[in-house]
């Protein structure tokens, strides 16, 4: 395919869209599907047919629209009316009343100025919920693969790296390593073959950002990976996606096939010398395979256990070759940076944490769902303005970021700007973007115990501190939780947490005690209030006990 | 090849870039406790006993996999490291079913020696008493998983030196176990050559010879160094083969 052919495809698709009188977008992401959006879509299609509107109106399934708690969601275009809780019955009413009679069903319309949407800024999710994830033409029509075309025809690889460096983009997988620096290292590393790997092994409890991007806009990831591959000099990419995401896998497979058919993956892309292929690798249910060295081993077909770094994968990764590993969300930021320029991207967010971050809101919050906000936004805005606060009758207690590797942030730190450095000051991490809200009902010892149970289950068992340490941390939390622990147990718990944090082999073990350490820091009284008196053998001083020997 | 100088525990020492901090420490009679490491096997950095402090680095690094750098300042025996080493042995002691008094390698056990070395006299964690299995189907040897510390020396020696790859780790976390072939009885393994290398490198009484009584078995790991060195130098290959 040439650049001209790409633009012709875009034009044809735009024309086709214009010829449709209206378009009905139904959310077909896993969240909405679970509350019946497939049936809604069918009902709408049936209704259109009955009314004879099926020629002029198109019904498409899209990726996540964001407000998962109010699903199934439906958008009617060109008006852009967003409906919530659309069951099949309401679906046919929309056809009848909105399309036929031109009256929107106001009781189910979410106004465009709803604070949930108004405070967001979408870069990663710009197409999510707006286009069909199953047709490459729709992605091309909204400017897809334009960034790849530009890079291949106008940029030297070095320019791509410096563009990403200047944008200030940092790894969205959790640690926030500067992406441009990583690309530069892989570019300079020496190897016969280099690899680009997309880490889509999202496993934190309550996190579904990457899944939503993969389900809603898979081509964006492929394009981001291709740009990265051109920059570092690779011709083979892998997407490592967890088996628990069957829909994401299906859509990725479809997307790869379509991109290959269009010549956007494969040999001589855009008539250049650049070749790039992408293969899927499916995980087998191990959380630890989200750790990069374990992920690489798993791709190679070995047992997924981490190894000590250095050497880092950028020097010695897949089969000992330089390997670039980035998270889904990181790759999704790449095409917009190329298209709109690094200075545009750097102007969003804070100077040290640029751009936006996708968060998955879950737990005791009114608006559960997927949001994208500029970095540096106060946590209070996310939880109360966008999230709508905790449900009626309860008060906010803490927010957990970073899943089992992160920490709890209490009420007094709610005005903290959400960026990598600020979250670190309260012993939490940005993490991949799971945000679980807890209300006054939540017992923090149980929260810590929940995350520790997860870490016990998911420890790979390679290093002793994580394998045995997390088991004992969980045991001690259990003891505290049921009121059988003493002051000594609490001291032992703290000592063990610090030890596991400092001596474990990989990032997962090193961060596994964080939920305990952070709840201890902010909610210590919840631990101490359930301790019992120290059991000590106290020799009896009474005469009866002492006399037998004396007399 | 360039030569580097660095400081380990206040001693200035010299090093080649491809050596590890553990090699260098041993050359200079600086003792760093180890468990998963064994000369002749590829290091995995799993037991965390050889962690050392490196000036300027916030993280503790395993000496067995860390390469030296010019001017590096390494500390191997600080109070913090001593405390962590003791806790690691303490965790191991609570994890398995380590009954020394009825063990074939009693008094010749690396775990026991490490416990003495770090001064472990009392275990503060509850014993986990896991239900483990014993497999005596192999003609000459026994694997008693009660005493396994998952150092994976047996896995590595069988794969790297013997080339049979009978052993591997199954399961995850606290329920990890060493299994033969595709998790079958050792005696049913077609790959096993009965060479006994795994038994000799096992630091505890998890892999033992049949017929040995309590405290009777001593393990001999030096053989490994000779095999590996001889292979590297091709000492067993005839002059003709070396030339062609």
Task: Please outline what is shown here.
The complex is a heterodimer of chains A (551) and B (244). Chain A is of the alpha/beta class and 551 residues long. Chain A has helices spanning 3-19, 30-34, 37-50, 88-100, 115-118, 136-141, 146-154, 157-167, 179-188, 209-216, 218-232, 246-261, 292-299, 328-340, 342-346, 379-386, 420-425, 444-458, 464-481, 487-503, 507-511, 514-522, 524-528, 543-550, and strands at 22-27, 57-62, 74-77, 81-83, 109-110, 195-200, 236-241, 277-282, 323-327, 356-363, 369-374, 396-401, 407-410, 434-439.
Task: Describe it.
The complex is a heterodimer of chains A (551) and B (244). Chain A is an alpha/beta fold. Chain A folds into 4 domains: 18-113, 3-Layer(aba) Sandwich (Glutaredoxin); 143-346, NADH-ubiquinone oxidoreductase 51kDa subunit (Rossmann fold), CATH 3.40.50.11540; 356-439, Ubiquitin-like (UB roll); 449-528, de novo design (two linked rop proteins) (Up-down Bundle). Chain A has helices at 3-19, 30-34, 37-50, 88-100, 115-118, 136-141, 146-154, 157-167, 179-188, 209-216, 218-232, 246-261, 292-299, 328-340, 342-346, 379-386, 420-425, 444-458, 464-481, 487-503, 507-511, 514-522, 524-528, 543-550, and strands at 22-27, 57-62, 74-77, 81-83, 109-110, 195-200, 236-241, 277-282, 323-327, 356-363, 369-374, 396-401, 407-410, 434-439. In chain A, helix 12 (246-261) links the parallel strand 7 and strand 8. The longest helix of chain A is centred in the C-terminal third of the chain and has 18 residues, at 464-481. Chain B has 244 residues and is of the alpha+beta class. Chain B starts with a strand and ends with a helix. In chain B, helix 2 (79-95) packs across helix 3 (110-118). Chain B contains 7 helices and 10 strands. The mean pLDDT of chain B is 95. Chain B has 2 domains: 4-77, Ubiquitin-like (UB roll) (Roll), CATH 3.10.20.740; 83-232, Alpha-Beta Plaits, CATH 3.30.70. The chains are: A alpha/beta (551), B alpha+beta (244). Chain A binds chain B through residues 286, 288, 303, 307-308, 310, 456-465, 467-472, 475, 492, 495-496, 499, 502-505, and chain B through 44-48, 51, 59-62, 65-67, 83-84, 87-88, 91-92, 94-95, 124-126, 128, 149-150, 168-169, 171-176.
